[in-house]
Amino acid sequence: MERKALATELEHRWGTRIPFNQEVLIDNKTFGVMRDMSISGCFIDSKVIFGLGQQISLRFNLSIPEPAPLTISGRIVNIRPGAGFGIKFNYESQEQPEIVRKFIAHVLNSNSSGLLNK
Predict the structure, then answer these.
(1) DSSP 8-state class, residue 40
(2) Distance between CA 85 and CA 97 in Å, rounded?
(3) What is the helix (H) or strand (E) element at residue 42, kind and residue range?
(4) H or E segment at 92?
């Protein structure tokens, strides 16, 4: 059963969304699991409560195929109680969106090898 959003900003995510199951460090103090990602943002499964519009920092790893640790800030744009929250990325350099874009393209091109099912 899908949980309805308690609160949502009017901005919508753009870009291809891929399933993703990666642990993420939030604000250098708590962990969540990133469940999906697009070039514009992600959804994080977390029991920790954050506020709509709150700015947070995310640290996670991507492999493209080399490991690429990233720290990206974002704003909470969607809250689903008991499930988690949606983030809109706030890129701080031109390199960050390019790394995410490359990773998504790599996953989409490699989906026959089972990367989407991890």
Answers:
(1) T
(2) 20
(3) strand 41-45
(4) none
Domain boundaries of the chain, sorted by first residue: 16-110
Amino acid at position 53, single letter: G
Digit-coded pLDDT (tens) for 23-65: 999 999 999 999 999 999 999 999 888 999 999 999 999 887 6
Is residue 61 a contact partner of residue 68, using CB atoms and an 8 Å limit?
Answer: yes
d(C-alpha 76, C-alpha 60), whole Å: 17
Six token digits for residue 21: 């199951």
Distance of CA 105 to the CA centre of its chain: 15
Find, among 94, 87, 25, the residue nearest to 60 by Cα.
25
Using the structure block, give the residue that is written with the tokens 């514009």. 40
Tokens of 72: 């990206």
The superfamily (CATH) of domain 16-110 is predicted glycosyltransferase like domains (2.40.10.220)
pTM: 0.79
Task: Please state, in angstroms and rounded to a whole number, the distance separating the CA atoms of residues 44 and 84.
Answer: 5
